[in-house]
Amino acid sequence: MSGEYRFGRWVPAEQVPPEAERVTDQVIQRFEHVFEVDPDLMGRHFNQQKMATWDTKRIVAARWDHLDAVHAEFADEVILAGEGPDPGPTTSQEHE
Amino acid sequence: MSNEHEHNESATAPTAATAATTVDLGTPQFLGEVEQAFVEKWHENATGCFSSGHKFCREVCPVTQVTRNENHTPTAFHANVIAMEKGHLTVEDVADDYVHCTQCGGCEVRCPNTLMVGDFYRARTETVKVVRAMRAMLVDKGLDREGWKVWNRLTNELKNEPVLGVEGDSPNAQAQVRDWAEGLDIPIGGDTIMFVDCEAAYYRTSVPRATAQILQAAGYEFGLMNEQWCCGGPAGEMGYVEQSMAFARHNVDDWRKSGVKRIIAIEPHDYVHFTEDYPAYFGEEFDFEVVQIIDLVAELIRDGRLKLTEPIDRVVTYHDPCRLNKRKGIHEAPREILRSIPGLTFKDVDRVTQWSYCSGGGGGLPIEKPEITAEISRRRLEKASELEVDTLVSACVWSERPLTAAGDEAGIEVKDIIELVAESAGIEIGGRTRA
Amino acid sequence: MSTISIEDEVIDRLNAILGEDGAVLTNKSSRFNRARVPAPFPVHRWEEFIPDIVVLPRTAEQVSQIVKLANEYKIPVVPRAGGTGLADGAVPMKGGIVVDIKRMDQIKEIDLVNNTVTVGPGINMQTLNRSLKKHGVIYPDDPASYACALVGGRIGTSGLSLLGARYGHTRDLVISFEIVTPTGEIIEVGEGGGRKVRKSSTGYHLKQLFMGHQGTLGIVTEATLELVPRAEAEFAAFFLFEDYETAYKTFALIAKSGLATLGGVMMFDPEKVDYLRRDDEAYIIQPDWVKAVCAASLFGTKIEVEVGAKKVMELGRSLGGRYIGDEIAAGDWAARHDRYANPLHGRDKDGKVVPMSWHCEDAAVPYSEVPEVLRKWHEIAKRYVDQYDIFDDWGAFQYTNGAHKPWADVLVEIDMGLWEDRMDEESWQAFVSLKREIAQVAIDHGGSMSSCHGATRAGDAELVPTEMGASWEVMKTIKRALDPNNIMNPGKQSLDEAYEEVTA
What we know:
Distance between the termini of chain A: 34 Å
Distance between the termini of chain C: 25 Å
Oligomer: heterotrimer
Radius of gyration of chain A: 18 Å
Mean pLDDT of chain C: 95
Order of helices and strands of chain A: EEEEHE
Strand order of the largest sheet of chain A: 2-3-4
Largest sheet of chain A: 3 strands, antiparallel
């Protein structure tokens, strides 16, 4: 799962994380599908650390590799339903 | 029993033992300035571990796998910070415990605080930094271990690590730092330089020779430094921070002098130091691009600039060097390289399983605890034996010395991946693979 | 204990028994690092929970001699395996000798003919299974702490496996084991006799007596374990619901489906879903109408799992559940092992991130009682969260409890955050009382206050006599008979009562 990003090439200018966009009232994201806590929630009782781009990418890649390995731990093959998410209830306020 | 009973209403076990040794555990001790700064700096990271205490790190820790002593677990390295903060433990109490670490980073990546949410909170477990900070404190307080003292004193004198032995007159100084390159006609300076670490420059010279000749064969331009000193990384790992910074300063100045823009790190530890320690030491001043050799060689092969034509008739497995796999996420490029070598039978073990593998060669462990390093390597070769291979391929020259010693026992040869690439490219490598 | 009170002579004799350097540890870091487990800990009273001596034995014979010596001097003995338990089984309440069995981690025999593996108690399940994989078999004891718990501790707590509906729990998967009794005898316990026999009608079934004793009846020194054919295929599906009630009914439909490959059925309640929205990548993106989740997993041969998967999809949707989608279902199932204990899940009253210790109160209750138990639990939790600044309700989940019989009783767990860093004696006592209230609800509803963690610490321990009822007398009689000097892990489960009556 960890392709694409070149972990073996360190370019200083690439290490500063991009600007964030908001996902929910508690969550932002800087890289596609990589969520982060709203930084406003941090700092009072626990500080954020400096984290270069490569390190965020490393952790995300490691997580997916780990989850694959957990599956492989208990079975030779993972069978999926082969379907995307079902649509939500039509009367709900989900798109508000 | 002493009279320290105020917390102890429930201590009514039917014990008949009488006090022969009395150690006061109840009265907190005040911390000195250095210790206070240490616990304040690491309080949050230690709390992250201490308050969860799940210990997923234990079974991936190569040292704990051997000693099976909870004192040597990454969990203990964090709990000690809290215990010091509460006045229960002193630096002296834990000094020896913190020697038991190769700084492989397995614990950090396996810790759920890193693995599951480290990116989310921008807060991950930093055990390696805690170990280094503790070792730095040992140096400050004169509690550093004897072997490390000697090693770093000699490094400071020689400007290179004494990899050929701390006794006698081994040819291991600046005068010999480029001996490995004899006959290869490599220029000094240029846009890109190849940084050759101490173990490669003096001990396993086949590695830098293979690397240089591969790059030459691919038409990739590079030079060597004017005056190459040790990267300073090992000193930093053992707690000699000032020495580490001084060596880094020297190397950066040397690169500046020749107008260098890009450093090729042929060794994983160097890649970590150049991309983590040097930026920490120098901030924005450090604007060099750093390339790990495995990534570069994989690219040269992929782009057809390096042709692998000679079949290599070996059955191999790959040892993920800790600093590539666990600490830097580099695990696909070496596999891509191995799969491109004709004739090679490659029996792979996935990178996640290898989070618990190590050679034991890092973090100064072989200097202070050579028996633990040897046992870690023995176990690594045992894993390789189960795969019925004739060769264990690594990509870290520091791992290759202990692995080779264990390989001699196991009847498995240890090769550097770049050596195999060079052979497959039809290059006569030269140099040597052992002392 | 706040002082060392062990004679030098004891240390000398322990050194003679262990016979190697570094196997008898009396220094402070060795002792402070063997006080706590992951459960919330009264950090402000750390020194009360440290052992006087730590020993690292390698053989049953050494363990036996250590225990005999402890009897001679009447020194408490506390066994410690991984130290990953959630109910303080391995926490020394009265000092003494911690017998840390991590060095007994060998694989002694892999018997592929009779499908058993014999190991030392210090081995971890993942480590073991990595060695077994090439043989096509697995030891499927799968707690959330799969990668760090050790076999000895699993026996000591009688743990629950996430694959229990399919393969059974620790009590079912351990065929027999060797244990050093509180007086130092080395015995083997199984169903009857026979180290590799799964069912017997001879004698008393001593295996289950020594299963889940939380270190109060001895120290396990070897275990013979089940080898199950590795599953060809795994399937996991998550269904989203607009309300708890429909998810709860769906849980039963799947649990009672009769699917033999069912690994387990799981549910998150609305509080848990809210909590997961804080930082779980699978739930952050879920729309607001999602209030509850029901999930199921299957393990077995490919042909069985493929057919079973269709049935699970049908049942999951039959009452209105909505499939979460392949992408999340796969990752989320695997993530269940590791996600639970991160301290930064915690939030203060303003929603700011607080590092909290994870406390999970587990109980086994009949299916019919689950909604009422959860309602009361959250009510209790809210009272404490409102009153003290150090608690946080992290929601509840439920999981099929019975080995091979997923259709009835349920493991329910309420997860709470506890801010250890700010804890003082008053809030610690509040925590103990919170635990007691939660445990009492489970008992009141015909359940057991712990399905898998144990009832060993303050808050639970006082209620063991209540839950056990008239059989509490038998329990005390057994404890006294096997451990006349009360040296095995004293102070746990109210068992000290067994000795008070004798002297009274």
